[in-house]
Amino acid sequence: MKKGQIFYHAKKYGRTIRRNFTWDDKCKVESDHIIYFDVMANNYRRANKPAIISEDGKETFHGCVEEQK
User: Fold this and answer.
1) Is residue 69 part of a domain?
2) What is the pTM of this model?
3) Most-buried pick from 2, 6, 13, 27 (CB within 10 A)?
């Protein structure tokens, strides 16, 4: 099971937040959001893109969806 941190802009708080996560078979990356398990809240959460996932010192940027023309 992967563990790390996710950084994203939370509409609820109006600012960028950092959350600790674990990644299991229910977690997924979709075109406009990421579903992850929030360790502090002990529940699954949705992070709207763009987001940065950091694990083992490596950061991965997940950007916004490009609009279809």
Assistant:
1) no
2) 0.84
3) 6
